[in-house]
Amino acid sequence: MHVWAVEDDWDVADLKSNTFELEWPPRTGRRQKFAELDRAAWVDVEEARTRILKGQAVFIDRLLARIAEG
Fold first, then answer.
1. Percent of residues in the chain assigned helix, strand, coil, to nearest 5
2. Tens-digit pLDDT profile for residues 12-44
3. Contacts of 20 by beta carbon, 8 Å cutoff, 6+ apart
4. Cα(70)–Cα(55) distance, integer angstroms
5. Under 8 Å between Cβ of 17 and 37
6. DSSP per residue over 38-61, as a string?
7. So what's the pLDDT on residue 17?
8. Which of 6, 15, 26, 27 gets the highest tally of CB atoms within 10 A of its CB?
9. How does pLDDT run across 3-13, given as a tens digit for each residue?
10. pLDDT at 68 over 90
């Protein structure tokens, strides 16, 4: 998993994703392209906590601590 944070103001509607190629359906020899990201959204901390896996909460906690440090 890769986690990052940025201080910026950008419109999530402008998201342009890279794609990757995968054999799909499996074992058919057919290759299809898929987007790495299918959507983006700005959410507050409480909402973010409801959308992530429990084990990922540490990253939010570390970010908030870093922000509090200045």
1. 35, 15, 50
2. 889 899 999 999 999 999 999 999 988 888 888
3. 33, 34, 36
4. 25
5. yes
6. -------HHHHHHHS-GGGHHHHH
7. 92
8. 15
9. 778 888 889 88
10. yes
**Phi, psi dihedral angles at 51 (to 5 degrees):** -95, -15
Contact between 61 and 45 (Cβ < 8 Å): no
31 neighbors 23 (Cβ within 8 angstroms): yes
The answer to whether 45 touches 65, Cβ cutoff 8 Å, is no
Check whether 1 has a pLDDT greater than 70: no
Distance (Å, whole) CA 25 – CA 4: 32
> Which letter does DSSP use for residue 14 in this model?
G
CA-to-CA separations, 41 to 16, 21, 33, 37, 58, in angstroms, rounded: 13, 25, 23, 11, 20
| Burial class, 60, CB count within 10 angstroms (exposed 0-12 / middle 13-18 / buried 19+) | middle
